[in-house]
Recover the amino acids of this structure.
């Protein structure tokens, strides 16, 4: 379980103070909604380690995550933009996410692409892929990283309605199959309704369940 207890944070020069507590379970998607500017990105940045709270606790299965820098936290992030290198193939993009010297690299990449429903794009350049295909490649990268926590930062916003529904279904399936602790921040009610096992509202710097 990923748990936060009174993560307190204030941006320099700001008047809003955050005091954030939540719990997220394996195999489930926990959704956080709130108005634009409520601080959803601040929450993800605190979990990922891009921001450090002034006080509080953040733990994964009892392990304190706060002393760890971002690159050492067991966390993957899927953004609204898929963050692929356009001039590289799907295989080359995914190889960048693997540890150097990883054995059987190509077979692992092929298996990940197959799991996200893209078995035929191994050597296809990223700039020739559709938006939905790029997000699938980004999900394949998450599979290869094999980290237990997945943060979703408005990952469906740039997709058309049909593709959005397909990718949402895929994210939910992968979360359940691999036991990920998945946290979604979104201002889209339909994303939250379709995916969330647990819901929080972010208001006035605090999280309210329900």
């Amino acid at each position: 379980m990923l748990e936060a207890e009174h993560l307190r944070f204030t941006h320099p020069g700001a008047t809003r103070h955050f005091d954030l507590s939540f719990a997220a379970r394996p195999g489930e998607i926990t959704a956080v909604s709130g108005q634009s500017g409520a601080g959803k990105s601040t929450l993800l940045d605190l979990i990922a380690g891009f921001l450090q709270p002034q006080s509080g606790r953040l733990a994964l299965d009892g392990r304190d995550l706060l002393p760890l820098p971002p690159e050492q936290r067991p966390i993957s992030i899927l953004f609204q933009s898929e963050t692929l290198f356009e001039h590289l193939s799907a295989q080359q993009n995914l190889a960048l996410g693997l540890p150097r010297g990883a054995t059987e690299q190509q077979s692992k990449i092929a298996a990940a692409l197959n799991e996200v429903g893209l078995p035929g794009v191994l050597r296809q350049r990223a700039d020739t892929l559709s938006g939905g295909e790029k997000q699938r490649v980004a999900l394949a990268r998450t599979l290869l990283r094999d980290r237990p926590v997945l943060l979703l930062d408005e990952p469906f916003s740039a997709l058309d309605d049909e593709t959005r529904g397909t990718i949402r279904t895929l994210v939910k399936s992968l979360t359940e199959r691999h036991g990920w602790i998945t946290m979604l921040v979104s201002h889209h009610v339909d994303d939250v309704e379709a995916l969330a096992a647990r819901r929080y509202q972010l208001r006035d710097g605090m999280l309210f369940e329900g």
Summary: The radius of gyration is 17 Å. Helices lie at 40-48, 90-95, 105-115, 131-145, 161-178, 189-195. The chain has a mean pLDDT of 89. The CA atoms of residues 162 and 206 lie 33 Å apart.
